[in-house]
Amino acid sequence: MDRLLTMRAFQTVADEGGFAAAARTLDLSPAGVTRLVADLESHVGARLLQRTTRRVSLTEAGEAYLARVRQILADVDEASAVVQAHTEELAGVLRLLAPPVLAVHILAPLVSEFRRLHPQITIEVHVEALSAPPIGDYDITLLGADEQYDANVIARPIASTDAVVCASPAYLRQRGTPQQPEDLAGHDCLLYRRPDSRGGTMRLLHPGEGNRAVDVRVQPVLMANHIETLLRAALDGAGICAQPLSLAAPYLREGRLVRVLAPWTMGRYTTYAALPSRKFMPARTRAFLEFLSERTRTSIQAALRMEPGVCPLSLPPGED
Question: CATH assignment of 92-314?
């Protein structure tokens, strides 16, 4: 039997002066309250209440026990209040885990504005690229994945975007702008190295033609398994590369990168926020998730407005 419930029933009988009154306060039947108190007395091995036909009073053991029970129940109620405060108040430490590229290009630009909105929340970011991140150890773990991603975790999609082909204005002034996918064969290309991909091939998809695919053999000047390395090289004018729009959007808006070959893409890329659990999510976690989703989508939509008629953005439905 629930020991705390038996203690609360005993305290209420003592405070209300009878079983019937206690039953009304606890929204239980008088017989139910009687059973709870009897179980408690059996557990402690002493009679706690003296019952007569006219009144209920505490025995000497009951008076001593009641004093301790009051403190125990007060501590339990206070502990519950503390936990609820952590869940409901916009305060405390928010622990995030992210790979370097998402930490630098997604998280870091949001810190200043989020802190202005919620100054009582401290953000603690752990930056590490792990194949199996310890999601249970953090409030939010950011993950980036392509269309083949199928992890068995609780993950809320933040935004799903196309991988767009882009280059710096300086590179395009020097080498010209490709007009069709086959033109990439004559350009300096920066390729993301995948374990299962064919080196030196860029596969482009046309969303307006049922994702018709075109494979172009290129001579890459740089291959890397680190997307930020490719981004940095593209910004410096090293060549043409594909970047998730969620990462490239700020540079497209600023004019530091230019999209080429629109509406051709190189697949889709989704940013996920993985959570240890959807139950009892702290308010600070919920607030940051909503802020992250809104700002990421706003950034991408601003980049899309530069290209009328092109909409490589999928906005997943909000989830708790």
Answer: 3.40.190.290
